[in-house]
Amino acid sequence: MNFEFTAEQELLKKAAREVAEEVIAPRVEEMEKTKELPEDFYPIMAEAGFTGILVPEEYGGSNLGTLAAILVVEEISRVSAALGTSFQVHCLGYLPLVRLGSPELKAKYLPGVAAGQYIATGAITEASGGSDPTGGMTTTAVRDGDDWIINGRKCFISNNKTANCTWVTAVTKDQPKKEFTTFFVDKSMEGYKTGRMESKAGFHGLDNGDLIFQNCRVPHSNIILGEGKGITVAMTSIGRMGRMGMAAVGLGVIKASLDAAVKFANERVLYGKPIAHLQAVQFKIAEMTYLLEASRLLVYRAAWMTDQNVPDKELAPYVAMAKLYATDAAIKASDLAVEILGGYGVVEEYHVERYLRDARMIWAAAGTGDIMKLTVARMHLNG
Ligand SMILES: Cc1cc2nc3c(=O)[nH]c(=O)nc-3n(C[C@H](O)[C@H](O)[C@H](O)COP(=O)(O)OP(=O)(O)OC[C@H]3O[C@@H](n4cnc5c(N)ncnc54)[C@H](O)[C@@H]3O)c2cc1C
């Protein structure tokens, strides 16, 4: 077993940390107020070579793989979980093209993705329930000559305002059995609109809300993988990037919480000494530390397995474990940080209350903790 990152991965982490600390950190306060994603975020990410991190070299990307993408998400999320999430959703948005898209679709979109001209997302959730995406899906696509006409409303979509392209899963056959197809749609196509925005507890700076498809005309050639294969496209992409990405956001939140708690514990003096001398504080710091280490092991291994192209069915429980554990660890670690800071823990200026709000945002995104548990249980049990 080799637990070391490659020299390339170390360099990438360093580059992502520099972007996070030098460029993103000064914008966080403003984002908390306006809840807007900074306009220059994606140009900066493109300049750093991150937007095309999963794009093959022949289309202008760096093709560094899932673990590399995860390391970037973690570093960005240490400073802004909102922007870490936005970036991971961008990767989730174009991943189906990389893995399952036709050569024509790849050539049409991937160079623009790598250059930062296309910012992507993925849309499956509807108001009828994210955990049961097929049961209540009402978005339809109907064939019209060489095109398909999509009608419907997707909700909770990350980057719903920022992204100018998305994959979207729709019902393409109702009888005798429902069939689903996933299309790649871009904003030049009439009828693709941003709808209402959610006002959320955390992830301020990440736009989330509805995408509306109103008689949206999409060429047949923009189908990913084939008619009737839409759930495979959506769910394997969510498994390989969406859940991995949210787990990495969790890692960033845990590390940020630990750093803030350690700094405060060393500086805050009570009874004539820094509170770092109090055993109760030491226990909390220890807990945050092993939560981070255990989460990292699970997340990095699942990312490594993804890069080894482990089949989706075998991979899914490992990704689910990583997402579940890192999420719960982020909630726990940020809560402990709030406690260590005493009254300052709930003061915005000290950031840890933001980490706790952001940690809570991770639980449902890309599948709830309950759904992760079901996925893990399926390793052993049918059902
Ligand atoms: C920050 C954020 C970003 C998101 N980004 C996107 C995006 O970009 N694209 C997209 O398509 N969607 C996105 N989503 C939607 C997300 O995938 C859904 O919120 C999630 O799948 C849960 O669906 P729901 O909210 O409708 O909850 P429901 O499915 O209604 O679940 C309600 C409750 O029932 C529980 N439950 C459901 N089924 C079971 C079961 N079988 N066993 C036990 N308990 C169960 C759930 O765990 C939960 O506690 C995002 C959500 C959030 C919060």
Q: Any key phrases for this structure?
A:
383 residues, alpha+beta, Butyryl-CoA Dehydrogenase, subunit A, domain 2, Butyryl-Coa Dehydrogenase, subunit A, domain 1, 16% strand, binds flavin-adenine dinucleotide, four-stranded antiparallel sheet, Butyryl-CoA Dehydrogenase, subunit A, domain 3, 51% helix
Report the radius of gyration as a whole number of Å. 21 Å
* Estimated structural class: alpha+beta
Bound compounds, please?
A: flavin-adenine dinucleotide
- Averaged pLDDT, please? 97
* Gap between N and C termini: 34 Å
Low-pLDDT parts are none
CATH class of the largest domain: Mainly Alpha
- Kindly report the spatial arrangement of strands forming the biggest sheet: 2-3-7-6
> Helical element count?
11
Shape: globular
Q: H/E order of the elements?
A: HHHHHHEEEEEEEHEEHHHH
Helix content: 40-55%
| Relevant CATH superfamily of the largest domain | Butyryl-CoA Dehydrogenase, subunit A, domain 3
CATH architecture of the largest domain: Up-down Bundle
- CATH fold naming of the largest domain: Butyryl-CoA Dehydrogenase, subunit A, domain 3
Number of strands: 9
Q: Report on the biggest sheet.
A: 4 strands, antiparallel
